[in-house]
Design goal:
mainly alpha, 4 helices, 89% helix
Length: 172
């Protein structure tokens, strides 16, 4: 009986040693991955934050710009401020995407080009609103053109959100 208990204790000790070694290996592997990819994850999160900030600033700017383009009574001195905030958020996206290109994905200017595409859509929307203010084309014509541009911008932002989430998951 003592021999059986001794053998059983040795088996339990061996199982405990295997579990401990496995846990240590997982811990060290996770720690090494955090050291190696911590900066990558940080940059990806900064890009995600910049995209969300841009979306907020763009939405607010768009409300003011649309009202202004229709010569509405809702004139606001906040429009230039919102335009500046939107522009600053685009610049932040460009800067963050440059870091993403250089440090994380290392594929030339892929993400920087995405930022330029975003900026181009904003410029096109602004151009439509400015043209309408100078030479009104009618609400239906303006809105149909704006729907196309706004849909494209929204799809771009959703694509960037999804791509950043995929990139984030590849480093975790």
């Amino acid at each position: 009986m003592i021999k059986f208990l001794s053998t059983f204790a040795n088996i339990i000790a061996a199982i405990a040693a295997v579990i401990t070694a496995t846990a240590a290996w997982i811990g060290v592997t996770t720690w090494k991955k955090q050291l190696k990819y911590g900066k990558h994850i940080s940059i990806i999160w900064e890009c995600m934050e910049a995209i969300r900030a841009f979306r907020d600033y763009h939405d607010t700017w768009y409300v003011y710009a649309y009202a202004d383009s229709n010569n509405s009574l809702l004139k606001s001195e906040l429009l230039p401020i919102q335009a500046d905030l939107q522009e600053a958020s685009l610049e932040k996206i460009k800067h963050r995407f440059n870091s993403l290109d250089k440090i994380v994905v290392k594929n030339d200017f892929q993400w920087r080009n995405y930022a330029s595409d975003l900026e181009r859509e904003v410029v096109l929307i602004n151009s439509l609103l400015t043209q309408n203010k100078e030479d009104p084309i009618g609400a239906i014509a303006l809105n149909s053109q704006l729907v196309v541009r706004n849909t494209k911008l929204k799809e771009m932002v959703l694509f960037l959100d999804f791509a950043l989430e995929e990139l984030e998951s590849s480093y975790q």
